[in-house]
Specification:
Helices cover 32% and strands 22% of the residues. By secondary structure, the protein is of the alpha/beta class. A seven-stranded mixed β-sheet has the order 3-2-1-4-5-7-6.
């Protein structure tokens, strides 16, 4: 049994990073993860589109991941967090990861399997663990492990909360609006808090990890 989520994923990356390592954050956005890796030479790359609320001014490289302007075998570790679904040709990007990584270099990926559409229209794919493993194996990577993001029950609540947030937009009627607001609040706050301990416990079982929100992955370059 396990209950794997963001804290554990970032810890696992940190435990593999040596001081002075060169890290590429592929799809870095606003460089949110930079502060978690203070001992590395951090290179942030992103195309800089898709999220109007994102500050792309901190990027080191603004460009397409299908053509990474770095030398072959020059990077120790690549992180690509919630990026793969936004790439129209992910196989080409994976090939670029393989090219720029040093031999036995590490690749850490998180990607969704069942998540709402976002950064529209730059939202192209969802990945089963078998699909992402096949994609990496065909590009010269060995997958060390794939872990579900929590489990099926947390995924159900994620969907409920996402839909509940939209309920107040159904009507501007002054009688109906308070009912929708209360229902939205109840589903997102009260019901979730009441059931979260039970759902998190059930999510630990392997039987309930085949329909999660997404997956975390560690691979190395062969």
């Amino acid at each position: 049994m396990h209950n794997y989520y963001w804290e554990q994923f970032i810890y696992d990356i940190q435990s593999c990073v040596d001081s002075g390592s060169i890290m590429l954050d592929a799809g870095a956005g606003n460089c949110h993860w930079k502060s978690y890796f203070p001992s590395v030479r951090y290179i942030a790359m992103d195309l800089g589109i898709g999220d109007s609320e994102c500050d792309y001014s901190k990027l080191d490289i603004r460009g397409d991941l299908r053509n990474i302007p770095l030398e072959d075998n020059s990077i120790d570790i690549i992180i690509s967090i919630q990026v793969l679904e936004h790439l129209p040709e992910p196989w080409k990007v994976i090939a670029e990861f393989q090219r720029v990584l040093k031999p036995q270099g590490l690749l850490f990926i998180s990607c969704p399997e069942s998540e709402q559409q976002h950064q529209i229209p730059f939202d192209f794919f969802r990945y089963t663990p078998f699909g992402i493993k096949s994609l990496l194996n065909s590009s010269g990577f060995e997958v060390v492990w794939i872990k579900s993001q929590l489990g099926n029950f947390s995924k159900i609540m994620n969907d409920v909360c996402y839909s509940a947030k939209k309920l107040p937009s159904l009507s501007e009627n002054w009688l109906l609006k308070p009912i929708l607001l209360f229902t939205s609040f109840y589903l997102r706050q009260v019901m979730w808090r009441l059931h979260q301990p039970l759902f998190r416990y059930l999510d630990r079982f392997e039987q309930f990890q085949d329909h999660s929100v997404g997956h975390f992955l560690k691979a190395n370059k062969l």
